[in-house]
Amino acid sequence: MRTELAMYEPIKSTDDGDQWREKKDIESASSLQISSHHHPYFPSDKERLVSLDVFRGLTVALMILVDDVGGIFPAINHSTWDGVTLADFVMPFFLFIVGVSLAFAYKNLSCKYAATRKALLRSFKLLSLGLFLQGGFIHGLNSLTYGIDIEKIRVMGILQRIAIAYLVAALCEIWFKGNHNVTSELSMIKKYKFHWVVAFVITTTYLFMLYGLYVPDWEYQISTQDQGSTTFLVKCGVRGNTGPGCNAVGMLDRMLLGIHHLYRKPVYARTKQCSIYSPHNGPLPPGAPSWCQAPFDPEGLLSSLMATVTCLVGLHYGHIIIHFKDHKRRLNQWILRSFCLLMLGLALDLFGMHLNKPLYTLSYVCVTAGASGFLFSTIYLMVDVYGYKRASLVLQWMGIHALPIYVLIACNLVFLIIHGFYWKKPINNLLHLIGIGK
């Protein structure tokens, strides 16, 4: 199930060059004034930017860890609403990596129209794959059945969000890139000024909708075999609410996608208001809010629009690699930008715009983008500058083959195939024997 999509695997640029090739005009190692008995390592002309593969592989490993262990250790599981945990950095890391990759993929364009067609095709492939894997077609480890009612298929998902961010960033890189020669940081900003205009328009639109749209009362139904259909009324009538039940992100998804096409296991079901076993799932406590069992998509439309900003930030970090060949200059720019993003995000959180992954708030974008920049800088320093590559071979391999790993392991396809071979009864299978899927 491989596909040539930017987010996980190397993208070939339109001139068929390797996206990660570095020119040999890297300045002397003395320009990176870092004391160590290991000499800084300089990639040759035919080598990949290994640090990006390692970063991607590390993110895949982190994703598998939080998916498999997060239910046992809530501290690394997704936050139940406001705040961030280890799991909440996975999606921004992937989006950041997509952006860095795009700077290489569209570095040299022979035809903008051909590049646009390729970007559209790649996005469509990713959307289709995401719809198949996360739309409800596959029924889980303990079920050997498959299929989904089209009226209840989940439209959005992780891969769909990445496809949207990839397409927006790719179109910006193809069509909104200036012809200036880059000789300084200021000239680089001028060359890509329309990228920042797009990011500003997206952010402004998001904030206007999140805090300005009126959210009316709404209702939903839950069907059970014992009691039939039960209707719940959620009373809102507010603007600017960022709680689980009355936010504009959820309202737009219910209006545009339909409530039956949203994710049915929202993270807020693990809050103290909705679970007596919080931060784990559990029975509703007495007096639980009416929205506790309502569908909500953490990869919804408005939040996915805001997620494209993370991708555009990663694209800017990739531009720094393209235009500046000195290690020290690259690292200084990355670290400065990462620090500013991190401080801005924490300040926004302090003044009331809370870190929130389901809503993908601006503070969350800034903090996670800053963290992505710091982590990428650290990996780049260790792997591409000082040459500690053997220690990261496994992560590098995972990064190169990230999409197949995600499809087969994170989406449980391998386990479903193994589960399909059993002795007399479906419960008698290898997975049950070793304790997976019980």
Automatic annotation (TrEMBL):
The keyword Transmembrane applies. The keyword Transmembrane helix applies. The chain crosses the membrane at residues 54-77, 89-106, 126-146, 158-176, 196-214, 301-322, 334-355, 361-383, 403-423. Keywords: Membrane, Transmembrane, Transmembrane helix. Residues 48-178 form the Heparan-alpha-glucosaminide N-acetyltransferase catalytic domain. This is (rape) hypothetical protein. It comes from Brassica napus (Rape).
